[in-house]
Specification:
The protein has 223 residues and is α+β, with helices and mostly antiparallel strands. It folds into two domains: 2-134, ph1033 like fold, CATH 3.10.590.10; 149-222, Arc Repressor Mutant, subunit A, CATH 1.10.10. Helix content is 33%, strand content 26%. It contains eight helices and twelve strands. The protein has helices at 17-23, 36-44, 109-112, 122-134, 149-156, 177-189, 197-209, 216-222, and strands at 2-6, 8-9, 14-15, 25-28, 50-57, 61-70, 76-78, 81-91, 99-102, 116-118, 160-162, 169-171. Strands 1, 4, 5, 6, 7, 8, 9 and 10 form an eight-stranded mixed β-sheet that branches. Strands 2-3 form a two-stranded antiparallel ribbon. A hairpin with a 2-residue loop joins strand 7 and strand 8 (81-91). It is globular.
Length: 223
Amino acid sequence: MIYGVGATYEDGSVDHFSSFIAQGIICVGWDKKTAPAFHAMLAGMSVGDTVFIKSFSPKVGLYIKAIGIIADSDVFESNLGSARKVKWLFSANSKEQWLKFGRMYDKYDFMRGGTLYPEFNPNIVQAITDKLTKGKNTKSNEVISIENAPRECLVRAGVIKECEIHGFDYIINEDKLQDAYKIASAFVRDGVVECAQRTLTDRIRDLFDTMPEYCYNCAKEAD
């Protein structure tokens, strides 16, 4: 399946596109009571399904800003709402790189204005497929230094998180460590990090082994 998702909140006035890309996620910002259908659709996505971040208005139609695949089966709460992990395969660095479709006039544009929807138009599906196929053997636009990559892998896999109050990292789910290694493998393969895979996985393990299981400052304040 292919799904389109919006990244603008508060009636389109706040754009979280860069956060979706940086965090490797898509989100539904509405709560479950307000938008149960969107949450059911988010939970029903399968690992490997294609997703794209879209911009749509009735006047100018559809634009696609990024394309990726669902990378994990978990639905989790992020700072932007209920979320799924995504491996982004294409993300535009400017408006000139957006895939531009305009109005499709296929009696389905009313769906494209929503937060999340399944896309079936054959022209759009083909364009997404062509974009991913064309970029298959090229390096990702994303580049992460070897110094920052171990933490990035652990964060994206949901192994660690940063304390929102004190800014210190701590472990939240060590069972996800293998997922961090998978992300590391993808980073090396796609040229996001320039190093040997073993080097990156060793650094991930070293960082994990030194990571606390809770924020010390929060624990002190609780005493």
